[in-house]
Design goal:
The chain is α/β, with parallel strands linked by helices and 230 residues long. The protein has 2 domains: 118 residues, Rossmann fold; 102 residues, Winged helix-like DNA-binding domain superfamily/Winged helix DNA-binding domain (Arc Repressor Mutant, subunit A, Orthogonal Bundle). The chain is 40% helix and 21% strand. Strand 11 and strand 12 form a beta hairpin. It is elongated.
Amino acid sequence: MKILAVDDDDSIRELLALQLTRHGYEVLTAVDGAEALAKAPQAEFILLDLMLPEIDGYEVCRRLKSDERTKEIPIIMLTAKAEEIDTVLGLELGADDYLAKPFSMRELLARIKAVKRRALPKPQENQLTISLGDLSMDFAAYTVKLKDKEISLTPKEYELLKLFLTHIGRAYSRDELLTRIWGYEYYGDTRTVDVHVRHLRSKLSASPEIANAIETVRGVGYRFQYEKSV
């Protein structure tokens, strides 16, 4: 697999290239946003630092996810920022995961493998459609409609909603959701789950009964509790 490592810090970029190559990956590097955008079509995976000169990582992510050539390439954001708003913005732009600096190589490798697993096609989903009140999900078309209007969800929001709808009433811990949706058990930050659930509720807010069906289970995590099915 060919990974594009984007970071303006020479030492970090060189370390990523060295370690990823040792683990069997082919590595491209970029020092800024412009170079990242130019090289991205050649990559199968992108590690993207957010604090880049001129064109920052947020804008790079937005452009990549808006481009037909690159929108399906998985992106892990690398950031020294700890504030939740920075993580939220990156995830909202379509990034698949984030990792705060400093991080261990072992953790990064686990995240890369987990994101790649989630990106694999799931043929069984192509035969299913679920309708529930104002909400409908078409797995073949990978679409979600609320009150007959299509809504835009990030990949993780989509997978969360699908899990909830196919397991109504089942409570999931944050760690279990990390394992099922993000694909890793030991390296996840449970704030990732909270961020996605909060934004999923917001996007479903046009139908309060659907949005409110995503319940917080105190001391556990979340569940989808809905009685009136159609």
